[in-house]
Amino acid sequence: PAILTVAGVSKTYDSGTTALSPIDLEIEKGEIFALLGPNGAGKTTLISIICGIVTPSGGTIDVMGHDAIKDFRAARRLVGLVPQELSVDMFETVLATVKFSRRLFGRSGHDAYIEQVLRDLSLWDKRHAKIMELSGGMKRRVLIAKALAHEPDILFLDEPTAGVDVSLRRDMWKLIHRLRTRGVTIILTTHYIEEAEEMADRVGVIDKGKLVLVERKTELMKRL
Ligand code: ADP
Ligand code: ADP
C-alpha cells in the first residue's frame, strides 16, 4: 500500500527557475527509496515540498490520507526531515535537543522512545554532551535523532553522506537500515550511485526537474 502519493507536483520558484516538472511518485510503506540525481536536479525541492516547507506550483500530495498541501500541519507530524545543514543549537545538549523537538509536535513524555532512538544512533552515552563537543559524524546523527523525536512514519534524509568519508558513509548506511527495521519508511536523496545501490529498494532518477526513471535496484543496475 502507498504511504505517500505525489501527483503532478511542479515547482517554479519566484526567480523563474523551474525546479520540478510535474512529478508522479508512489512510495510504499516500509521501503527505502533513493532519489538519485546531480546537483540542481530538484531533489531538495521535491522533499521540501512533501515535508510542507516549500509550496508547490501545482499538483497534490497525499501522506497517509492527509492532503500534505492543504493540511500541511497534519502531514508534517507524519514526516521527519534530516536537512543537509546543521540546524541545531550548538550550546544545547543532545537529550534536550531531542526532547524539545518532540514537544514542538505536542508529544510529551515517552522517555523510553527517546532512549531507544538515541541508543539506535549510538548517542545515548553522549546524551548530556553539548552538541558543539561532538564529532562531525555524531552531529549528523543528532540531526537524525531530532527528526525522529516525534515518531514520524516517514523519514527524509537530504544527502545524508555528502562530504562524509568512506567509513562514516558505511556507518550511515548501516544505521539507515537499522532504522527501517523499526518500521520507518525512508526516502533519501543522493548524488552517489553507489549509495542508491547500497541503500535503496527502489531508486528514482531525477534530472533537470524530471523523474526520468523509477526502478527496483536490480533493474536499475541493468539500465545504467
Ligand atoms: P518561493 O517561490 O518558494 O517563495 P523564492 O523564489 O521566493 O521561493 O525564493 C526563496 C528564497 O530562496 C529567497 O530568499 C531566494 O533568495 C532564495 N534563493 C534564490 N535562489 C536560490 C537558489 N538557487 N538556491 C537556494 N536558495 C535560493
Ligand atoms: P538538488 O537538491 O537536486 O541539488 P534543488 O532542489 O536544490 O536541487 O534545486 C533545483 C533547482 O532549483 C536549481 O536550479 C536551484 O538553483 C533552484 N532552487 C533551489 N532552491 C531555490 C530557491 N529557494 N529559489 C530559487 N531557486 C531555487
Automatic annotation (TrEMBL):
Signal peptide: none annotated. Residues 4-224 form the ABC transporter domain. Keywords: ATP-binding, Nucleotide-binding, Transport. It comes from the Bacteria. The keyword ATP-binding applies. GO terms for molecular function: ATP binding. This is ABC transporter ATP-binding protein.
